[in-house]
Specification:
Length: 157
């Protein structure tokens, strides 16, 4: 029983230290793509990201993580309550122990700037490329295009 109390006391102390080190109430976001910086060390409440291991939300004091972004919508919940949505084609997300988050996207576009008709046309073109692909490399590239454009169409809907 004494061992159990010691373990609980040790866990409680480490949890409290982790919350203090990570700045439990604060989360800083850097979100960039090659042509633009969308957030530069901005304080935010929450971030939802699409990942190959499944979509997940990021809150302050999230466990440190490194993940690959899949094509889809990243939602940033700002401190003023606004939710901003961005379509990303791919990239990485890094969550650090100090509650800083880096989102690096290959491409990032505000969902409000997307055109569903253009997205559907891109999907049709990608499907045609797959149908006419004659090499394994061409087939793989067409499959990637289809995956991205399907997510793009879904983001527009």
């Amino acid at each position: 029983m004494a061992l159990t109390r010691s373990a609980v006391r040790l866990f409680s102390n480490r949890f409290a230290q982790a919350c203090q080190v990570r700045g439990y109430a604060d989360m800083s976001l850097t979100f960039a793509a090659p042509a633009q910086v969308l957030y530069n060390h901005a304080a935010v409440k929450q971030i939802d990201v699409p990942s190959f291991s499944g979509s997940f939300g990021i809150l302050p004091a999230h466990v440190p993580t490194l993940a690959v972004l899949k094509p889809g919508v990243v939602t940033v919940y700002e401190n003023d309550g606004a939710a901003k949505k961005f379509f990303v084609s791919s990239g990485t997300v890094t969550i650090n122990e100090d509650s800083t988050v880096q989102l690096l996207a290959e491409e990032a576009v505000p969902v409000s700037d997307l055109d569903i008709n253009a997205a559907k046309e891109l999907l049709s073109q990608a499907q045609s490329q797959l149908a006419s692909a004659s090499t394994d490399v061409a087939k793989a590239e067409a499959q990637i295009s289809i995956e991205v454009t399907e997510a793009l169409v879904k983001a527009c809907e």
